[in-house]
Amino acid sequence: MTAAISRDEFVGLLRDEIGLAVGAVGAEDLGRTFDEVPGWDSLHLLTMLVLLEKRVSRPLSLPDFLDAASLETIYELVNR
């Protein structure tokens, strides 16, 4: 099964569309908890949900996003 969104695309969306300070596609950036991400705000989660739903052309679960522990978890949710 092909990923709904590549890691590069995901990081680009976080950086370019949302304005989060995530660097290269390293696991250390995506594996951080939300409070470890520079500039994180809880509204970013809703923005991310909307942008990712548009990108993958299907609804994503808000409760799953709210339960997510990191950006990596969000990436995995989008690609399951």
Q: Count the strands? A: 0
- Shape designation: globular
Question: Approximately what portion of the residues adopt beta-strand conformation?
Answer: under 5%
Q: Helical amount among residues, as a percent range?
A: 55-70%
- The total count of helices amounts to 5
Task: Quote the distance from N terminus to C terminus.
Answer: 9 Å
User: What is the average per-residue confidence, as pLDDT, rounded to a whole number?
Assistant: 87
Radius of gyration: 11 Å
Low-confidence stretches: none
The biggest beta sheet reads: none
Which structural class matches the secondary elements?
Answer: mainly alpha
Order of helices and strands: HHHHH
Give an account of the 3D structure.
The chain is mainly alpha-helical. Helix content is 56%, strand content 0%. The model has no long low-confidence stretch (mean pLDDT 87).
Secondary structure: elements and pairs:
Blueprint: H1 7-18, H2 27-30, H3 42-56, H4 62-67, H5 71-78
Tag the structure with descriptive keywords:
80 residues; mainly alpha; 56% helix
Give a short synopsis of this structure:
This protein is an all-alpha fold. The chain contains 5 helices and no strands.
